[in-house]
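Let us work through a complete example step by step.
Step 1: write down the sequence.
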Amino acid sequence: MTYPTAAADIALRDQSITERVFENLTTRPDAVVLTDGLTGDAMTAAEFMTQVKSLAGGLTARGMGAGKTVALMSPNIPHYCVVFHAVAWAGGTITTINPTYTASEVAHQLRDSAADILITVPMFLDTAQAAAADAAGQPVVVMGDAAEGAEPLSAYYGAPIETQVPVDLDEHAVVLPYSSGTTGLPKGVMLSHRNLVVNVDQVIIGGDLRDGEVAAAFLPFFHIYGMNVLMNVHLAGGGALVTMPRFDLELFLKISQDHKARRMWIVPPVALALAKHPIVDTYDLSSIEQIFSGAAPLGGEIADAVAKRLNCASLQGFGMTELSPVSHTTPFEKPKSGSSGVALPNTQCRIVDPDSGEDLPAGSEGELWIKGPQVMKGYLNNEKATAETLTPDGWLKTGDIAYIDDEGYMYIVDRLKELIKFKGFQVAPAELEATLVTHDGIVDAAVIGLPDDEAGELPVAFVVAADPAPSEDEIKAHLAKTLSSYKQVHKVNFVDEIPKSASGKILRRVLKAQAMA
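Step 2: predict the structure and record it as tokens.
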């Protein structure tokens, strides 16, 4: 059966994502909309729009406008938002890169996305230059002071472009965040202006965003959660953001206190800190009406503990990069412990038997499928993965096992896909396995995720070693050379063989059962 949303559908706007943001900003030109949480530097709505239009003009004059792909690798700072929307306003495509990536990981994304230029910050310049040299020699531009081998971004400002450069709202991929999807190595997710705009409107309604809301923005803007739910929703919905380059509990609490935040946008590890860390009691958080957790399932016990401690509602949502990213949110007026909420406007769901493909009734567990205008166009350069994830009639197979109760509330209970969620980040076992077996001392390898209260899941490796066998420390050092910190294994188990099916597929459930036992 199909579970239609109980919410009334919303009209689809014929706007680009930047036109949607500007529509609200023009009504409050003097309002401070972006503040740097470390320096206190602030930007008004008028200043933001002026900078976006000027940078769009300069990029276009330098041949980096319409039809070009700009890679953006930076922590959360106000000018991240300027670059993002300048590229969109100029008719280009932004591919957002995790700034903690290694040079080889950045180079892969530069090559796969066919990026024409890479914009970064001085802290990550060495990595950016090494990656660009390894990819296609892309120019590297730095936000802030000029640096050797890189132009300052200030040189790219020019005569402003006053109106949106024409784009096909449905077909033009305005952003290419990278996701491992349901399986495999990171892939470029093609999201259109239509995808982003409708999801902004869906979240503003489903999340009850109100004018004047200020939020501490530590969720990284390179990740779809921080990009569309924080950056675009707050700018388009009458709110403001105080940026944080990384999560720091004390700074997060101070910003929330000083700006009288109404809600906290968080991930499960932060919920754990809010529930248990003693420093929380030293801040006045009486303005907080709700916490909203996403990126990974939040257990009902921790959710309830935070709600009790902060005297607020504890809400969850469900999303994926491929959903721009949100399909479900918990209603503020009626939360249910452990639920990921109800479907947003314009969104339909199915619970499907993974083996038979048959629809299942309310209360039954099966794979969650979703259909709506927020569903991605597909994966860049990967028709096979697109066909495996999207049905011909537009249903997105999430790879998550869920059930929907008789009131339409959805609960995630397991993961059909193999992706590991470590502190909200996606870790593809296949990527770690491919790196492990490049070690001369490893014959075969498998990686699984094991439950952890703080991280959500910890990547754990099982390896078949050669003779002589490498040590656990040597294996970890091997991974650390080429993969980001969050992609590291936390334990190495030496085994005689990796259990596999007749077709050669790793039987991760067998390894997980052994590890849990």
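Step 3: interpret the result. The chain has a mean pLDDT of 94.
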